[in-house]
Amino acid sequence: MNQPCNSMEPRVMDDDMLKLAVGDQGPQEEAGQLAKQEGILFKDVLSLQLDFRNILRIDNLWQFENLRKLQLDNNIIEKIEGLENLAHLVWLDLSFNNIETIEGLDTLVNLEDLSLFNNRISKIDSLDALV
């Protein structure tokens, strides 16, 4: 089985990674080309897919204030952090990571679907605010 993550260095989410992901996942036809030329505003992005990127830390997502779906599965994330500004998030996938504590989710009051399977969870914290 091909597993490209093992050969890559651990990565932190930076502007370049996010711009590349947004560009790759945006519309590919003429409208998409226009958006790439003019620059896509992160606040306009509703869905972001960052799976299989060897991400070690969640970071630089504060600009995605209207994000509704975030896919961070199959990385090497150890801690749930950097999500406090994503109040509109409805769907979050953090499965297949190295997370030990469920934390940092208390501001995600619209969260409906949270996937955390296949992690190293031993402690659950700060879920009281969530319905």
From TrEMBL:
UniProtKB keywords: Cell projection, Cilium, Coiled coil, Cytoplasm, Cytoskeleton, Flagellum, Leucine-rich repeat, Repeat
Protein name as annotated: Dynein regulatory complex subunit 3
InterPro entries, A to Z: Cilia_flagella_integrity (IPR050576), Leu-rich_rpt (IPR001611), Leu-rich_rpt_4 (IPR025875), LRR_dom_sf (IPR032675)
One of the Pfam families matching this protein, by short name: LRR_4
Species assigned in the record: Homo sapiens (Human)
Family: Belongs to the DRC3 family.
Transmembrane segments: none
PROSITE patterns xrefs: LRR (PS51450)
Source taxonomy: Eukaryota, Metazoa, Chordata, Craniata, Vertebrata
Recorded superkingdom: Eukaryota
Compartment(s): Cytoplasm, Cytoskeleton, Flagellum axoneme
